[in-house]
Write a structure and sequence with these properties.
Number of strands: 0
Helix content: 55-70%
Distance between the termini: 38 Å
Strand content: under 5%
Shape: elongated
Radius of gyration: 16 Å
Length: 79
């Protein structure tokens, strides 16, 4: 299928949306995070992760301790 046809179909059925490719391990971790917090959508899940990351960054800026797994950005989302 030509890329232009794929894009037109995606835009017609999912306007204003984007696709994100990730490994199965990452998706499993995100799914666990989503389930533990009873988040209703993937958007809500990603926004919750961003909010937690923002709070962690603010804590570090104020002299707080580094979060566990800070050397590996993906580590913070693994159960």
């Amino acid at each position: 299928m030509p890329v232009s046809v794929w894009r037109d179909l995606v835009n017609a059925h999912f306007p204003g949306s984007a696709w994100l490719r990730c490994s199965q391990e990452t998706l499993d971790s995100l799914s666990d995070f989503k389930a533990r917090r009873a988040l209703p959508t993937w958007d809500a899940t990603l926004l919750a992760l961003l909010a937690e990351a923002r709070l962690a960054e603010e804590g570090r800026a104020e002299g707080g301790a580094e979060p566990v797994g800070a050397e590996d950005p993906g580590e913070a989302i693994r159960p």
